[in-house]
Specification:
InterPro entries: Amidase_6 (IPR024301), Ig-like_fold (IPR013783), IPT_dom (IPR002909). This is IPT/TIG domain-containing protein. By secondary structure, this protein is of the alpha+beta class. The protein has 6 helices and 19 strands. Helix 1 runs antiparallel to helix 3. The termini are far apart.
Length: 297
C-alpha cells in the first residue's frame, strides 16, 4: 500500500526517497499580490507648425519694379510658386521666409494687384495685395508711354505721321513726361504746331544728344546692350547708310536663357513690347542700333 504522505523506492543498496508533501492551502486574503506594472506612456509627436504668412500693411513699390519684398511666417516652405499681378516671380523660400524682387507693373499702371502664394498642386495657400505707385521719373515716363503708344495724345502734341512718322515726336513726349525741360533746341508748343527739329526729327535729335548730352545722357554702343534699363533710348539705322531713321524707348529688359532681351514701346510701328532682335533680324535685316542711357534722376 502506498502512503499519500511519502513514497520510498529502494534501488539496489542505495535508497532513494521521494517525499510527496501534501499541498498547503493558500489564503487569498492574506497573500501579497505582485506589484502592478505601470504602462509605458506612448510618445506624443510634436505637431507640425501651421502655415502662416505675415504680410505688412503697406506692400508696394514703383511701376518699374525691382523692390525687394521680404515676408516672414511659419511653414512657408509649402509655397512653390509666387505670382504678382499674374506674373510669376523667382522667389527664395525657406521655412520661415519668402523673398523676391517685385516685377514691373505689366501695363505700367498704378494701383493694387493680387499676390498669390501656391503649393505644388497649384492650390492657393495665401494671398496679399501689392500696390503699384508712380514714385520715380521713369515711372512717369512709362505710365505716359503705355497710355499713349496706341491712343495718340493729339490734343497736346499733334501727330507727324502724315509728314514722315511720329516716332520721334512720341519719344520726346515720354521724355517730357519724365521731367525733361524744353530748351532752345528741343521744344514743342501750342499743341504741337510750334516745334523744333530735334523734337520731331530723329537725325537732329540724335546729333543733339551726341553733341550736348542733355540731362546727362550717355551714348551706349550696340555691343553694350546689357547696360540698358527701362526708359532708355534706342536709335535705329535701318538702311545702313549712317543716318538714323527710327527711335523707340526701352519698355522691358529681361534675361532669357542667359541672354538679355530688350523690348520697346513707340510709334511707327505702334507697339508696347516690340522685340529689339526681331526688329533687326526679321523686320529690317542688316539694320543697326545704338542707345542712350538716361539717368534716373
Amino acid at each position: 500500500m502506498i502512503s499519500t504522505a511519502a513514497l520510498v523506492l529502494t534501488v539496489g543498496v542505495v535508497g532513494v526517497v521521494l517525499a510527496l508533501q501534501p499541498s498547503e492551502p493558500v489564503d487569498a486574503a492574506t497573500s501579497t499580490p505582485p506589484p502592478a506594472v505601470e504602462p509605458t506612456p506612448a510618445e506624443t509627436a510634436e505637431p507640425e507648425p501651421a502655415f502662416e504668412l505675415i504680410v505688412p500693411d503697406a506692400l508696394g513699390g514703383s511701376l518699374v519694379g525691382g523692390e525687394t519684398v521680404a515676408l516672414s511666417g511659419t511653414a512657408l516652405d509649402e509655397v512653390v510658386t509666387v505670382t504678382v499681378g499674374g506674373q510669376a516671380v523667382d522667389a527664395t523660400i525657406t521655412e520661415g521666409s519668402i523673398e523676391f524682387a517685385a516685377p514691373r507693373s505689366e501695363r505700367y499702371t498704378a494701383g493694387p494687384v493680387d499676390v498669390t502664394f501656391a503649393d505644388a498642386s497649384g492650390q492657393t495657400l495665401a494671398t496679399a495685395s501689392y500696390d503699384y505707385r508712380v514714385t520715380t521719373p521713369v515711372d512717369q515716363q512709362m505710365e505716359y508711354a503705355f497710355k499713349h503708344w496706341q491712343d495718340y495724345n493729339l490734343a497736346d502734341w499733334n501727330t507727324f505721321n502724315p509728314s514722315g512718322g511720329d516716332c520721334m515726336n512720341f519719344v520726346s513726349q515720354t521724355l517730357f513726361a519724365r521731367g525733361w525741360q524744353m530748351t532752345d533746341n528741343w521744344f514743342s508748343y501750342n499743341g504741337g504746331t510750334d516745334f523744333s527739329s530735334a523734337w520731331v526729327y530723329v537725325p537732329t535729335f540724335d546729333s543733339w544728344l551726341r553733341s550736348e548730352a542733355p540731362n546727362g545722357v550717355e551714348y551706349i554702343p550696340y555691343e553694350q546692350r546689357d547696360r540698358l534699363t527701362v526708359g532708355d533710348i534706342v536709335v535705329f539705322d535701318f538702311n545702313y547708310n549712317g543716318t538714323p531713321d527710327h527711335i523707340q524707348i526701352v519698355s522691358a529688359v529681361e534675361i532669357v536663357d542667359g541672354q538679355t532681351t530688350i523690348k520697346m514701346v513707340g510709334h511707327n510701328r505702334d507697339s508696347d513690347y516690340r522685340d529689339l532682335d526681331e526688329t533687326l533680324t526679321v523686320d529690317h535685316p542688316g539694320g543697326l542700333a545704338w542707345f542712350y542711357s538716361v539717368p534716373s534722376v
